[in-house]
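Field reference: sequence -> structure
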Amino acid sequence: MKNVDCVSFYVEDLDAGIAQYTRGLGLKLLWRAQDSCGLGLPEDETEVVLVTRSIPQVQFRTDSVEDALPRLLEAGFTCRLSPFDIDIGRCAVFADAWGNDFCVLDMTKGNYTVDDKGNVTGVQKQIGS
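Structure field:
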């Protein structure tokens, strides 16, 4: 596979969903239909699709979870689980106005290193990071 095509979130109102996700996460509207719309990240092909009929989950990557926290709270997201350490960095769990949970994570500790079978063998800080 090349990349994640999309992730979907249930919203009751597309206009309110578009407003919250564009303001809070910096997404831009790519397309919209009667019951759904596609939002895009500035430097990625993956779409976030807001729909009025399903409820999946997603993880968003950021440079710094700590820096993202105030922007998300200001945009109306709820922090369900405050930032905590993970192997590769930091993570926090948020919810939107419709109760959809998502994670925001950073990779401030580095990337996983893997063996020839893809098994994680450790974490390595990237040069220049």
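Note: The helical segments are 14-25, 65-74.
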